[in-house]
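Forum: Protein Structure Q&A
Topic: Joint prediction for protein chains with partners

I've read a bunch of threads here and the consensus seems to be that you should model interacting components together rather than docking separate models afterwards. I'd like to see that in practice. Below is the full input, 631 residues plus whatever partners are listed. Could one of the regulars post the assembled result?
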Amino acid sequence: MTDESALAATPVLAGRYTDASITDKIADIVLVRPAHWGWVAGAFVSGALAILFLVAVSWLFIDGVGIWGVDQPVAWAFAITNFVWWVGIGHAGTFISAFLLLLRQRWRTSVNRFAEAMTIFAVAMAGLMPILHLGRPWFFYWLIPYPDIMNVWPQWRSPLIWDIFAIGTYIIVSLLFWYMGLIADLATLRDAAKKRWQRVVYGLLALGWRGDARHWARFDSAYLLMAGLATPLVISVHSVVSLDFAIGNTPGWHSTIFPPYFVAGALFSGFAMAITLAVPMRRVFHLEAFITERHLDNMAKLMLVCCFIVTYSYLVEIFMAYYSADPFAIAMVENRMGGPYAGVYWAVVLCNVVVPQSLWWAGVRARPVALFAIAIVVNIGMWLERFMIIVTSLNRDFLPSAWHIYVPTFWDFATLLGSIGLFVLLFLGFLRVLPAISIAEMRKLARDVGAER
Amino acid sequence: MSGDRRYGVLAEFASPEALVAAVVRVRREFRDVEAFTPYSVDGLADALGVTRTGVPAITLAGGIVGGAGAYFLQWYTAVIDYPINSGGRPLHSWPSFIPATFELAVLGAALAAFFGFLFLCRLPRLRHPLFDVDGFDLASRSRFFLCVRATDPAYDAERATLLLADSGAVRVLPAGVS
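Posted by a regular:
Agreed with the consensus. Here's the joint model:
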């Protein structure tokens, strides 16, 4: 709160709203307003891609992982790249909703709900990927400890086991946190709905919430505690994901910088995805007064911060390879920068290091279209970064006789694009059935902002 | 005003400030008072005399159960039930047990916070006498309500109605038990 004039110029809430007008503006998107052509077009395209995903997964289950380009030693390629990318995207949603709540950042109010939805759908996509890449996906539940007739227990020293606990906990806690924040708004929809089926469905989901002040006190207490739990959780989840790599002795993976490097990369791509979703959403649903340029500006600044941590990590990786004087580590770095996948490496540098530097200029951050374009570039860059980490480390193993060039097939791309389509379709569905902005919290924000004027 | 007032007397207010002021005033005569708001109003819980929510203790218990359970499960399976010598590492290799312990501690605490919150609120409860009061649906929209419960030992419907009307209520309504 150092620069009060700048704050006044771009407020967290543009215009004057009452409790009733805020309720109508947000609830009408769900209850009253007909679908905008932009929404219909988006649903059509993403629906087509979701069908492609269904086809790709069906064919995978019929024919096996051989339909992808994976082969020894590159056994992890698109599926795990997608997995890490999707989990990372989810993290910014948790960061916005939980971490900014703890810091009492008011700009969080109008972006937390859709960011949490983004988290849930992204983690759902992420959770599918490791299961799909199992040769026998129907045995995925063997990772879960349960007393089975084979008398076998999971190997607790394996980071892949830590992974299922981290991802499983993350999706459950994200869902609970999201649903808890929704309860009061579901009650609003229940009371505002005209159609009987809407009253019944929202009424059941609202659990009979009636806004009792004692319930609100317990809600605030529980919600804050959940935020306090979700904040270290989000850091632990991507740290565990990075340990999937760092615990192995493969050059390019076996590095202590991986946990912070991955967490920063996750937030980087997550903020990029939040901007990618927010820019069209606020335009199509006319939410510019609630999601203002201030929100986009803040997210862009956070993206720039993450960009620097990621850049530092890239540099440390190179430095550590030469400082260690380990010939395998040096060979890996030189393979990355000048080997068969050098194009990927330099594309990563361009997308994740060079292009985000334009965010230094306030004029760029103030232009939603420019921000959208940069966010797309960062999304691509972060996907390529995970591809670079996985494939360039694996394709030239310790033994030159095992070296192999991985080339993705049509089905690799179909799975990636299809998962993006399914994610967007789920998100578009969310926009039409649940309030995309927390109504209860916006009422409070409008009171506070109104009182200060 | 008459009607079924066996649940209590309900009053509607236009602003959170008016509600909090009325709560302070009404609570000098009646102890069993409920308030309903469309969002969490600062200071209202204090005015109602809520000092502890009970949620943190339940959350802590959930976290301890989750974490201790996870560690015990790993220790029991790796040391007692299914010991595997993996490269000469100790069976009780506790650093490897930390990630799952942490994750399940968080999971236990989060589940306890959520379900503890619901339990303490006695939710879900889809039917409630107040839902039958005409206009109570505004409690989830723009209005602030205060209810003097009939269970109050000093309950007097006429007195409560007068007091609420005098405390700045927009209107005062009977709340029955249908």
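Residues 159-192 of chain A form the longest helix (34 residues).
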